[in-house]
Every structure is written in C-alpha cells, then in structure tokens.
Amino acid sequence: MRAVQDQLKRRGGRRRGLAAAVLAAALALTTACTDGGGDKPSGWQAGSQNAAPKAAATITEPQADAKDVPASTGITFTTKDAQETTVELKDSAGEAVEGQLAADGKSWLPAGALKYGETYTATVTATGDDGRPATATSTFTTMAKPSKQVRVSSFLGDGQVVGVGMPLIVKFSRAVPEDYRDDVQRRMTVTSTPAQEGIWHWVSPTEVRYRPKEFWKANSTVSYRVQAGGLPMGDGWYGRADLTVDVKIGPSLIMTVDNKTKRMTVRKDGAVVKTIPVSLGKKSTPSSSGTMVVIEKLRKTVFDTFEELGPEEGYRTKIDYAQRLTWGGEFIHAAPWSEGQQGRVNVSHGCVNVSMANGAWLFANTRIGDPIVVRGTERKLQNGNGWTDWNMSWEQYVKGSALPYEPPAAPGTDATADPDIAPSTSPTA
User: Fold this and answer.
1) What is the mean pLDDT of residues 391-410?
2) pLDDT at 26
3) pLDDT confidence of residue 429
4) Is the predicted pLDDT of residue 6 greater than 70, yes or no?
5) DSSP label at residue 344
6) What is the mean pLDDT of residues 375-387?
7) 105: pLDDT confidence band, cut at 50, 70 and 90?
C-alpha cells in the first residue's frame, strides 16, 4: 500500500482525535460524580444513561484534512467491539458515493474513481451489542487531475465469446514498477458464473493476465474490472480511468495432437466429435509440444519466410484456414500439398497441417482461446511463445502474482474438460 500512503499528507488527525477522547472521558467522569439532589436519579443512574458506546471506530486513511489524496483512494478503518459497521462517503454537495466494504471488513472502496480536486467526508459507524453507534469522520480533498496518466486496455471486448483456455489480458501503456503492482492488483477483480478459482499473473511490467486453476467451465459468464482511475503507478504517473469488460465462455472444445499417431482428436464438452490426420514439423523444424490456445484466426493469409529462413529455405505461400498458436509462427492450417503425408509422416515447417476439408471444419468450429495440446515432438514449447499460460503448472502460475495466493474457502471448481487433457503441471480506458 506504499503507493497510496506516499501521496497522503497527514495533518495530525490522530492527535486531535486523542485529545477529543480525553476531553470526552473527563466530562463523563464529572457527570458521574455529580449528585443533583432531591428526587433526581442518582449519579450512578445518570452515568448509565450517558455511558459511551461499547463499540469504537477510527479512520486511518485518508486522515482528517489530508490534501492531494489520489482519486483512487479507499476508506481504511479499524473498529472495536462492533457487531455492525457501515461506511458513508459524501462529496462537498452532500451527494453519497456508491461503494462497498472489502471482504476483510477493514476497508471500503468507491465504485469508481473520485472526482479530482473535490472535498469528501467519510463517516464510519460501528454499533456494538449495546445498540449504541460510535462514529468516526474524516474530511479530505483529492488531488488535481494529473498530467501523466497511464492507459489501461483489454485484449477482449464486451460481449465477446471465447474458448475455455482464454486468459484475460490487461495491458498498461507504461511499465508498472514492481513496488506498485500489489496496489494495482488489489484493484483488479474477476467475477465468474459459476464461480471459479483463479489468479492474476504478471507477464511483464506492462502486461498482466488471469486464468482459472483449470480451464474455464463451458458457457460461463466472466466479468473483470480494473479500478485504475487515479491510482498511483509510480514516478508521478496515475491510472487514467477504470476499465470493465464482460465476456462469455463458449462450449468446451479441446484439440489434442499426438505425434506418435499423427492424429488430432477433437473433443466438445468432453465427447470426441472428430479425429483428423495431421502432418507436423519435420525433424529440422519440429512442432512444439505443450499446451497452447488459438490466438487469431485468418481465413486467408500468406506465409512469407524469406526474411526468417533466407533465399534457399524461405518460401511465400498462400494459406487457407490459418489459426495461430505461437508468436514464432506455428499455426493449424489447411495444407492440400501434404494431404498424402497427413496421418503418416511429418513434412511441415512446424505447423499442424490438415486437409482443406478438415481445415474448413476446424475453422468453423473453433474460437479464439480454444486449447490445443501437442504431445511427443522433439521440441518443448517455450513459455512466452504465444499465450502459454496453460503451459505452466498452477504452482508456477501463482508465483507471477504480486499478491500472496489465498485459496478459496469452498473449493470445487473442476473444469469441464476431458480428464486426459488436464493443463500441464478491445476497449481502452
């Protein structure tokens, strides 16, 4: 949380709060020791009627009278002996700000970035078992709109339907320093129906991805949000705006390629729907073994390898039904020139060659994010060569999180996938 604390200017709110508490205690003691005489209640009875609430509340951030508070700020507080706690935030016009308590009950986060240069008043009310409320308030002013802002973008757009292996991909227009990534990740939430266990993984200082522990459950709905507006991101840079994306997961379609049999097995929602002969990369240019996903689909394209392979080995060929698997140039695609070798021998330059008919069928049935598992080739898939999030074990993947991994309280989020194919152990704001 250093990123937020560095931006807040303390004004001695705690000392004033302590002085007020001492004065209140002194007044209470004076009242309890005064006898009104006559038929008035005794001092003990009067003291009982005016006793302080059992519960107590203190706002720790932002402190009272703080200036230049980031527009992303939440309300952090502590309570004692509270059975119920409520938080209210109002702007200078008295308008309430929407928000909700964090799961740990120790902080409250606005539904969106606060206005720049605006004065707000936070009120935390704690009520104990005696029914008496205790309140704490803090009035603070947000910073002026910063000149250096970081754009946050999503690879996926609202309403997009993707495969069960699709990672959620968020990019930043500027590198996020390591010391600030935990603050950023705290503002990144994923909600899926049905609920599924998952975590964010920093691929680089400018890119973070999310995947569930197992493949997404077929036909799930997924919503992810980055509350980056006004969030400090190091060196005087702040998030430009919040970002929210809603997507849908399609049916479970998983392709498995076995180099030994030279066959691709296609399973939809766990049932085998097609077996396809393939030709993989020859020994000099082998295909990669590992778990990949479809990155892009091109109905027609041209493969030009002269720059990569040189004039002797290079070629320029028109390609139909191409589906990219790696950044290095491995695709599933139709290869009518190798149909005689498909199912028998490997002759490609690393791609998964299929017939024109099978290429058309695959192209019509797959989506971006559908997984493909290739086994038994001479080369292992290099992590980072494509969306290789599933090529890492879960234990490896959680190490890329800027926050400690906390398993859910109620596990039980097995993916709808073939048991033999467990993953290996754009809107802009």
Assistant:
1) 92
2) 35
3) 46
4) no
5) T
6) 97
7) confident
Q: How many residues belong to the chain?
A: 429
Q: Please state the φ and ψ torsions of residue 89, each to the nearest 5 degrees.
A: -125, 125
* Among the listed residues 199, 344, 217, the one whose alpha carbon sits nearest the alpha carbon of residue 280: 344
Q: Which of 143, 138, 142, 98 is nearest to 119 (CA)?
A: 142
The whole-number pLDDT of residue 201 equals 98
Spatial distance between the Cα atoms of 265 and 287, rounded to a whole number of angstroms: 17
412 versus 278: which is more confidently predicted? Answer: 278
DSSP-derived secondary structure for 25-83? HHHHHHHHT----TTSPPHHHHHHHTPPPS-EEEEEESPTT--SB-TT--EEEEEES-S
| Three-point CA angle 401, 405, 408, nearest 5° | 135
Catalytic residue among 33, 201, 349, 351: 351
Q: Which residue has the tokens 């498909």?
A: 342
Buried b (16+ CB within 10 A) or exposed e, 181-215: bebbbbbbebebeeebbbbbbbbeeeebbbbbbbb
Q: Respond yes or no: is residue 33 known to be catalytic.
A: no
Closest CA to 377 of 291, 292, 289: 289
Q: Which two tokens stand for residue 149?
A: 């802002």
Q: ∠ at Cα 420 (256, 409), nearest 5°?
A: 120
Please give the Cα distance from 353 to 279 (Å, whole number). Answer: 5
For the stretch 47-70, pLDDT in tens is: 445 678 999 999 999 999 999 999
Can the peptide bond before residue 62 be classed as cis, meaning omega within 30 degrees of 0?
yes
Average pLDDT, whole number, for the chain? 86
Model confidence at 422: pLDDT above 80: no
- Annotation marks residue 333 as catalytic: yes
Residues 239 and 229: their CA atoms lie apart, in Å, by 5
Q: Which member of 33, 201, 333, 349 is catalytic?
A: 333
d(CA 122, CA 109): 11
